[in-house]
Specification:
Length: 110
């Protein structure tokens, strides 16, 4: 079973037991977070559930492994012949999570 979920403006293909680095999610290391923006779920039987835009009743439950910072990005602006130069740096806050399970509430029975 795997799912395509969205967090921090990015989409990820996740399956239980997988570890990934996403944009910052609030939570201490060891705490569980629920990511409800699931776009698609593929069950073990091969059934595909596609949301419009999200699958109703589906969420990915993950454990926060740790909070990290991404690599330093340098932004350099330059305009020739006008002595205009600006240099800025940026480091993105990231969260390493481990997907524990993909929960799916059957809404067809309700």
């Amino acid at each position: 079973m795997y799912a395509v979920m969205e967090t921090g403006g990015h989409q990820y293909r996740v399956s239980p037991g997988e570890e990934l680095l996403v944009e910052k999610v609030a939570g201490d290391p060891g705490s569980e977070v629920s990511l409800a923006e699931v776009l698609m779920v593929v069950k073990d039987s091969g059934d595909v559930l596609v949301g419009t835009p999200y699958v109703a009743g589906a969420c990915a439950v993950a454990t926060v492994v740790g909070q990290e910072r991404g690599p330093k990005i340098l932004v350099f602006k330059y305009k020739p012949k006008s002595n205009y130069r600006r240099r800025r740096g940026h480091r993105q806050d990231l969260t390493r999570i481990r997907v524990e399970r993909i929960e799916l509430v059957d809404t067809a029975d309700a």
